[in-house]
Amino acid sequence: MARESKRAKRERAAVIAARLRDEYPDSRVALDFANPYQLLVATILAAQSTDKRINLVTPALFRRFPTPRDLAGADLGEVEELVHSTGFFRNKARALLALGQALAAEHGGAVPDRMEALVALPGVGRKTANVVLGNAFGQNAGVVVDTHVQRLSRRLALSAETDPEKIERDLMELVPREDWTRFANQLIHHGRAVCHARKPDCPYCVLADICPSAEI
Questions:
Q1: Which of 32, 51, 113, 146 is catalytic?
Q2: What gap in Å lies between CA 201 and CA 132, rounded to an integer?
Q3: Region label for 157, one of left (φ > 0), alpha (ψ between -120 and 50) or beta (otherwise)
Q4: Which candidate, 49, 176, 162, 37, places its Cα nearest to that of 109?
Q5: pTM for the whole structure
Q6: pLDDT value at residue 2
């Protein structure tokens, strides 16, 4: 694969995307949400935690603080208690209060639907912005690059980079824009189900015959 041309890599990426669509036709972001605000908060909380844990925590959090304006006026200690089990709870609670205050003061209490506005918010980086834009607003602004996408991009030889933004640029060149959000969700699903970090389940992988890292 080291000598693979850009055209050949793009064609292989199309096959990868097609197989993942067939394997995971209903793949979606694993965080539960009802609106952009909920997905934004959940994604921030998911750092250094699991989506399963976040989905257990957020219902009570959103009942108590259903809007950004409610969160803006929250008591820090109460938020810390609500998000305690997600890890790094003090930092996350402070980030959520700052987020609510910024949304209330700068965006009328609504989550903006533009990349530049989202990444300017407290606690929001490009990955989080891509999650929200792609899954809550239906905008293919970029490709979400989490630990699963990083791992699979290297194993599948779609990118030799280690920096998430450079990996994202490589994937954006290989995959049609209309597929960016779906492709990331399906890579993440495949990483959780089959292409595990410690021992990938290559004999049961639908990509094994076109994966240079396959252990079969």
A1: 146
A2: 30
A3: left
A4: 37
A5: 0.95
A6: 55
Token digits of residue 95:
């980030």
Residue-wise pLDDT for 129-177, tens only, equals 999 999 999 999 999 999 999 999 999 999 999 999 999 999 999 999 9
Question: Do the Cβ atoms of 94 and 76 come closer than 8 Å?
Answer: yes
Active-site residue flag, 127: yes
Which of the residues 9, 92, 127, 170 is marked catalytic? 127
Q: Is 108 helix (H, G, I), strand (E, B) or coil?
A: coil
Inter-residue contact 205 to 192 (CB < 8 Å)? no
**C-alpha span between 95 and 27 (Å, rounded):** 29
Q: Is 52 a catalytic residue?
A: no
Q: Which amino acid is at 25?
A: P
Enter the tokens of residue 65. 């603080």
Burial class (CB in 10 A: 0-12, 13-18, 19+), 116: exposed
Q: What is the pLDDT of residues 6-55, one digit of tens each?
A: 999 999 999 999 999 999 999 999 999 999 999 999 999 999 999 999 99
Q: d(Cα 132, Cα 113) in Å, to the nearest integer? A: 8
